[in-house]
Amino acid sequence: MIIPRTIRRMKEKMEHRTGPYAHLFEPYEGDEVVSLDCETTGLDVKTADIVSIGAVKVKGRKVLTSDRLDIKLRPPKSLTGDSIKIHKIRAADLIDGIELDDALEQVLAFVGNRPILGYYVNYDIRMLDKFIRPKFGFGLPCKAIELSHVYHDIIKWRSVGGNVDLRFDTISKKLDIPMLERHTALGDAITVALMYVRLKYGDPPDVA
């Protein structure tokens, strides 16, 4: 039986209401979001593994590049030639990678209960939940913000009668935001953060 995410989240909140991670389930009342991206060995959540995780905080109009997460994991067995063609990450590039359990601890500490922003963000959340839930007994409870939805809701009024191109490269070009280190977790996370600020405020984003 598949449990709806909302019901599962309520169940997990009750189970962890007095534990060390209870704060993750509290409503977020600040003004920050975390732009997050995972590079993986494939697109199937069931079989893919995470090779790197990048995240950066956004506070109002500012992308806080100095407050970021840039994690490389030890090379998984599923790291093959086909996946390397996409993210350009070889086993040799992960020689100093950390253990997955350590990476998950860092992600939970960095994100906290802030909303998670991303491009196809539900995929990244599902990938993380695949490993977080067996270890901690819950999935990421944070609100998800999908960049392409934010873009679509704004641009659709200028494209009456036409389709809105939601490809990553197109959104970047339309917003005049350079793509930073495409197909690296941190580069994509920063690019998404810059696009989000441009969409929300309409001005060139500040980088701090």
TrEMBL record:
Asked if the record carries the keyword Hydrolase, the reply is: yes
Q: Which UniProt keywords apply?
A: Exonuclease, Hydrolase, Nuclease
Drop me one GO molecular function for this one.
nucleic acid binding
Protein name per UniProt:
3'-5' exonuclease
Q: Please spell out the taxonomic lineage of the organism that makes this protein.
A: Bacteria, Pseudomonadati, Pseudomonadota, Gammaproteobacteria, Oceanospirillales
Q: Which SUPFAM superfamilies match?
A: Ribonuclease H-like
Give residue ranges for domain Exonuclease. 32-205
Question: Biological process GO annotation list?
Answer: DNA metabolic process
The keyword DNA damage appears for this protein: no
Report one GO cellular component: cytosol
Task: Please tell me the species this chain comes from.
Answer: Neptunomonas concharum
